[in-house]
Amino acid sequence: MDEKKIISVLEHLRPTPGVRFYRRMSQAPWHSGRETQRRRPWLYAAASLLAILVLFGTLPPLQALARGWIRFFTPQESIELNGQAGGDREFALELDQVRQVAGFDLLVPTWLPQGFALEGADFDERRNAVIINYLKSGALLRLTQSMGEGTREIGSIGSQAEVQPVALNIGGRSQQAEYVAGAWRLSPIGTLIESRPEVNATLEAGWDPDAKIQVLRWEFGGILYEIIHGDADPALFTPQIIFKIAEGMQ
Amino acid sequence: MSATGQKKPSPELPLASSTAFSALFEETHMLVFRYIYGLHGGPVQAVEDLTADTFTRAWNARRRFEGSRSAAIGWLLRIARNLVIDARRKEQFRGVPLDLAAVIVHEPGMAPEERLVLQEQAGQLWQALQALPQERREMLVLRYMVGWRVKEIAKHLNIAENTVSQTIRRTLKKVRQNLEQPKGAG
What we know:
The complex is a heterodimer.
Chain A: H1 3-11, H2 19-26, H3 32-45, H4 47-53, E1 73-76, E2 78-81, H5 95-102, E3 117-124, E4 129-136, E5 139-147, E6 155-158, E7 164-170, E8 173-181, E9 183-186, H6 191-195, E10 203-208, E11 213-220, E12 223-231, H7 239-247
Parallel strand pairs in A: 1-6
Antiparallel strand pairs in A: 2-10, 3-4, 4-5, 5-12, 7-8, 8-11, 9-10, 11-12
Chain B: H1 18-40, H2 44-60, H3 69-91, H4 100-103, H5 112-130, H6 134-145, H7 150-157, H8 161-180
């Protein structure tokens, strides 16, 4: 290796901090004021929606064998939730930070329903997934992009849920996606997460086709994309809303 | 923009407020992390902790800092250097293999065999780098991993530009000679 090559190799060394570092830094004192202001609306406005959201995309890969023609979802009569009920994810990373740890190119929406604002992002190491969360009182919007292990996890839906195949134009390409409305609902809902965040019991959830939650999934280039959108306002809860979000992703 | 893609910070913002300090963190944490990584040698988690400790110390001392934003970077790096020296002394540093997956940037279109060669060379070079005296290692890290110009390094280390250039040239030559020595030849 001559000096020129040594310089070239050194210039290829570009270490970057991992998720662990950014999580720690999100709690740093110079960030603390901002974090308090950002999380409170989410806790108060959408606590009940969190209980059902957590159940999407958590089935192990083997259950995909039971799927029929549906590509991204698995119908089930009911599901059991083991361990903590969830809702504890912190969206403490900026988009630039999560881009650095993702290892793949992220898409972000260029259009959002009125009133949504970016809360932040998180990286799920187990699923190799980037999760971006947006906030609005009484509503939710969460985008998940996973690669590798994460693409093999299947969204579970109720046996009576209707999966609608849709052709969308995303990034200038015609893209086949699947759309489902409804969600698994824990019973009793609402009080569980707030009063017993450490719960470790096995909980049963039933499918609620009337839940104001809609999910859209598609795959391109080895990356699984998922949008979960919910809104208590019926005027803002139509399939066209989530389709428009997807078609605006770049 | 420097060679690392870091934005050049604007010169006159104070550090006392959390907003100003947060902006300083956003602009400089990658530079500080890479500086510490090159100086300390890893593993990644130890470097992350040292980077976090650097900013925590700077935050605690922010009201005593008087100077421009560019001076703030030098101040951060001096805090970082002291932490690295303490850490290596306590840990009785023996050298850690380079975490290739976390550290090397592969250019688009690079063939798999080119990547393997680069990884092997980087691993060997990393060991050679860690064996250098700290002052020389620091100059190489600042010049090629952080992407500073000789002029910036000279200002930061308070030595003549010519001295920096000569030291870097001599150090590169020394590293090449060490890499050429057969294994076990000392």
